[in-house]
Design a protein that fits this description.
Elements lengths: L1 H45 L5 E5 L3 H13 L6 E5 L4 H7 L5 E3 L3 H10 L4 E3 L5 E2 L2 E4 L14 E5 L2 H13 L4 E2 L14 E3 L5 E5 L4 H7 L2 E5 H6 L9 E2 L9 E3 L6 H10 L2 H11 L4 E2 L8
Parallel strand pairs: 1-2, 1-3, 7-10, 7-11
Antiparallel strand pairs: 4-13, 5-14, 6-11, 6-12, 8-9
Helix pairs in contact: 2-9
Amino acid sequence: MKERMRNIISAGLIVILAFVMTACAGKEQEKADKDEAQGTEKTEDTEKPVLKFATLGAMEPTVRFVAEGLVELGYPEPEISLFDGNEMPATAVKDGDVDGALANHILWVQNFAEENNCELTMLEPYYFITPVSLYSEKYKTIEELPEGAQITIPNDPTNRDKALRMLRDAGLITLKDIAEGENYQMAIDIVDNPKNLDIVEMDIMSTGRAILETDASITTASIAADVDVDPNVYLFRSREFREMGMFVRNESLNEEWVKDYAAVINSQELKDKFNDYYKGVYVLYDEIENIE
């Protein structure tokens, strides 16, 4: 009887022990699965995003230099979308289709944001500027421009404002006195035009071709270079420089890549690539004093 009781107890202990071991094993597996899931989640959280940028064709290398710098910091290769319309990159940023864009100067971006009821900010440090000049393939000096000469200028508010101020500073027209920043100059603000210049407004992207087809055209050095006009041979050059750089939605300002962008812009590697490629067509913002 005692022997039988011992056997029953032993069998019961074995069953209990097996149950405990199974339960412990299950908990260990559950913990391992949980740890693995948490580890995976942590890895995904720390992965750097695939960034999307928008730009214009002529500025694609400036964005590519930034992309290369971000890749060196561990980011996947950013996606770069090219547009041929001046407002398209900014619209892509506004609509959230891209993370940032590099296409226009700071006053243009601010004007676009105001007109489109959105909040956009150009990142600092600013990246570069593009000199703006009055170009001509027909004449060598301002004085040679004939009576009734046709001069093309950009038609968007901020660039038109700058072009009219340039014509004023070159001594070709007189403008109604408007403080810069208070309002944008328009053709109706011309109060004196002694040479009866025919001032034609057009999209800035067309002002390069206009150098070849009209008496003179105000445009950027980069657009002039695109039509094989020497960007450093001009009738008059503005000394008013407007900042260029990546602009983003304000909600993106605290994202990690924005801080890394600043590090890339400040790197000597980027500056060397930039200067070797552009040779003065674009000028780094911190090297403005080198502009001829």
